[in-house]
Amino acid sequence: MMATNWPAGMDRSMPRRISTRWLPVSMDLVRLRVSRIGTASIMLVLVRLRLFLIVSFALVGCSKPEAPPVVRESAPVQAPVAPAVPDGRKVLVVFGDSISAGYGLDAGLSFPDVMQRTMDKEKLPWRVVNQGISGDTTAGGAARIDGAVALKPALVLLELGGNDGLRGIPLASTRENLEKMIVAFQGAGARVVLAGMTLPPNYGPDYIRGFEKVFKDLAGKYKVTLIPFLLSDIVTQDLRYFQSDGIHPTAPGAEIVAGTTLRAIRPMLK
Length: 270
Known about the structure:
Blueprint: H1 16-19, H2 23-37, H3 39-62, E1 90-96, H4 98-101, H5 111-121, E2 126-130, H6 138-143, H7 145-149, E3 155-159, H8 162-166, H9 171-187, E4 191-195, H10 205-222, E5 225-227, H11 251-265
Parallel strand pairs: 1-2, 1-3, 3-4, 4-5
Helix pairs in contact: 5-11, 9-10
């Protein structure tokens, strides 16, 4: 305590060397105060400081940068779609095999395609639906007839049976299948045109006559229009309207077959 109490009458302007004598005492006072605080208290302060720093750095590290504002683009305004105009034309279904399908021809050159173009030029309100499948038989046609009936055709060209004959299928089976299809189409309100067919001479006269008779008998029984031999108008000495297989029409041949068919059905197109 001597460092703070000046003796009476002592001049404070004493030389500096006298004041340095009190430095050790001051250091002793600091040591004394530290000892009074206590080591435990200092450690507690340090621990709290360390925890504060850890939490602060953790908060800074976990914080996410603010996301940039999302710019929402407005959906483009779509022009109103005009409602589909119903096709008011009557439906003509060509229900056949590779002859109808246009085997070996480019798209759009089959005889049903030519029929459609001709009717369009003449402004006849008919839509031709080509359901020809290459290699199909009367059994195959009878199995898929529901799809054709669902089209609600007003007129059907039934062109099946050729592959039955070429494969030597029993005539009774061919007759039964054709009859089933005629009855189904007529039952749905369609008029039926039956496209007859014949066979090469090597099948023998008896089988050929029986084969041709199937078409004639069914046409008479159900009073349907019969085209005795669909390809009759393209048979020439040099077979120039047939492809190399001698069975399927060429593109010019398909145009002729279309004419043959249109002549047969024209009274029904009114």
